[in-house]
Amino acid sequence: MNKDLNHLIRNFLEYLEVERNCSKLTVRNYEHYLNILVDYLTETKGHSPTIDDVNMESMRRFRLHISRMPGNNGEMTTVTQGYYIIAARSFLKWLVKHDVRALEPEKLEVPKNNAKSLKFLEIDQVERLLAMPMTSEKTGLRDRAILELLFSTGLRVSELVSLDRDKVNLETREFGVIGKGGKARVVFLSERSAEALDKYLKTRRDKYKPLFVRMSGKVEGKDAMDFRLTARSVQKLVKKYVHKAKLPVEATPHTIRHSLATDLLRGGADLRSIQEILGHKNISTTQIYTHVTDARLREVHERYHSGNHPHPLSPIENEKKEE
To answer: Does the pTM of the predicted model rise above 0.70?
Structure first.
């Protein structure tokens, strides 16, 4: 059996691509995290590492190593550190499944992330954001449609930019998308988002497939209207309108996705339904939103529980009077 770590990782990445049908971005991320592990082991062991070099002690030291690696704003965040461990656990699970003797993946604990790091917008902040694009202009109509669609459907930005105009049914206000891991789901348009999308599409004079396209510039002599809007462009336009609305949260397209989930949860939707709407594979992923209702539940308890508002004739009040 070939125990060379690089060889095993290559086979694992091929498995992700072919058998798991993971996106190119997912495969690339796993490759990045695992290559960092290989580089670390190569440097510390002084030789090309094998799977035997992946043990509890080496992984403990690797955890310490990545915790000290630089991040975007100083040290690497706990969330990012977790990605390295998740990649290693997935790799080890694959090895166990294929009868390769390796460290038990369950022994690697993913760093716990503080739930308060989850960012979302309150409904009044969402409304301010949606009102920012100037709908008297074509670009503003497109941007308003994008923001409305993100909040109505909870689409990931990659899912949004891959949409084609003929796949969105404005009459039924629903359409299908293929999400992460090839998971299919149905998403729904609110009346307002359908109206915004309809107004935008009526300004389109082209016959190009993408739902959202660039509206300025020329590429190779052709009008850029035939070029699909990129995920980066959507991220930039959301950032622009967030700053324009003077929101206290550095919101991204994913923040709007979080905002939809919390809005549904606060409105009384159950976790299973939210899981289906967002396209989460596991309910545990959806459960990260439950903490945002804690403050609301506290408000309800404070406001309505009789113990917080003693009756004038209650024993507590009587005791106070006697004192």
So the answer is: no
